[in-house]
Amino acid sequence: MKRLNSLLLMLFGIIVLSLGQFKLPDLPYKYNALEPYIDSTTMHIHHDLHHAKYVSNLNEALAKYPELYKKDLLELIQNINELPVDIQKTVRNNGGGVYNHSFFWKIMAAPGSAPMSPALTKLLTDNFGSIDAFKAEFEKAAINQFGSGWAWLIKEPSGKLRIISTANQDNSLMASAEVKGKPILTLDVWEHAYYLKYQNKRAAYAKAFWNVLNWTEVEKLAKN
Ligand code: MN3
Fold first, then answer.
1. Distance 90 CA to ligand 1 centre (A)
2. Distance 192 CA to ligand 1 centre (A)
3. Is residue 12 assigned to a domain?
4. CA of 101 to the centre of ligand 1 (A)
5. Ligand 1 centroid distance, CA of 8 (Å)
6. Tens of each residue's pLDDT in the chain, 224 residues
7. Is residue 72 part of a domain?
8. How many CB atoms lie within 10 A of CB 188?
9. Could you tell me the distance, in angstroms and rounded to a whole number, from the CA of residue 22 to the centre of ligand 1?
10. Which residue range forms the structural domain that includes residue 150?
11. How far away, in angstroms, is 213 Cα from ligand 1 center?
12. Gap from CA of 193 to ligand 1 centroid (Å)
């Protein structure tokens, strides 16, 4: 009986400790779903190792201030400058990493499974002149981001759609963002996202990306 009690106590402890901690979300599709444009091995390494590491680094930083586990991720990364100074940089890099990757997985889908609707075609054409012009501007942002970072389509507070890029794991939701807005779609241009298949050809990766867009999800985000 005593043994059972201490076992239950230990179990309870483990549950309490893991409550509120950030978790690695599953991919919304199979690892090979984006083939041949994004390969299964890259997806395994990217999700199971890189994304997972951002999650564990974030949890490790917050462990010093467990009351922060009560906040949701968006609240954390939108208000980094209000966090204890010693964890601001870690939360910016790793909280950003967790948010950006979870978002990135969501706006992709198996090739051809979520095509662009006439309504979204019109919205993008109204904002950028044509779909080709939109794609060209986005690819340019992806290619010209020096070093590691992300290309984004965002919706500015005015409602206007805009293409930007950010360094490292920054995004347009952070207080530090030069241009603020709601993320609509994104492309990870860190070398870990494409190097196995595309090596130094980031432009080819950016072009291939259009084949794995979840335009249904993008449209939902653009309209909200
Ligand atoms: Mn990445």
1. 16
2. 6
3. no
4. 6
5. 39
6. 566 666 665 555 454 455 569 999 999 999 999 999 999 999 999 999 999 999 999 999 999 999 999 999 999 999 999 999 999 999 999 999 999 999 999 999 999 999 999 999 999 999 999 999 999 999 999 999 999 999 999 999 999 999 999 999 999 999 999 999 999 999 999 999 999 999 999 999 999 999 999 999 999 999 98
7. no
8. 24
9. 17
10. 118-223
11. 17
12. 5
Gap from CA of 50 to ligand 1 centroid (Å): 6
CATH of the domain at 132: 3.55.40.20
CA atoms of 68 and 52, how far apart (whole Å): 20
Domain count, the chain: 1
Contact, 152 vs 185, CB < 8 A?
yes
What's this model's pTM, rounded to 2 decimal places? 0.91
User: Per the domain annotation, does 132 fall within a domain?
Assistant: yes
The verdict on residue 201 lying in a domain is yes
| Residue 154 Rama label (left phi>0; alpha psi -120 to 50; beta) | beta
Centre of ligand 1 from the C-alpha of residue 120, in Å? 27
Per-residue confidence (pLDDT) for residue 80, from 0 to 100: 96
Q: State the distance from the centre of ligand 1 to the C-alpha of 217, rounded, in angstroms.
A: 20
* Cβ partners under 8 Å of residue 13, min gap 6: none
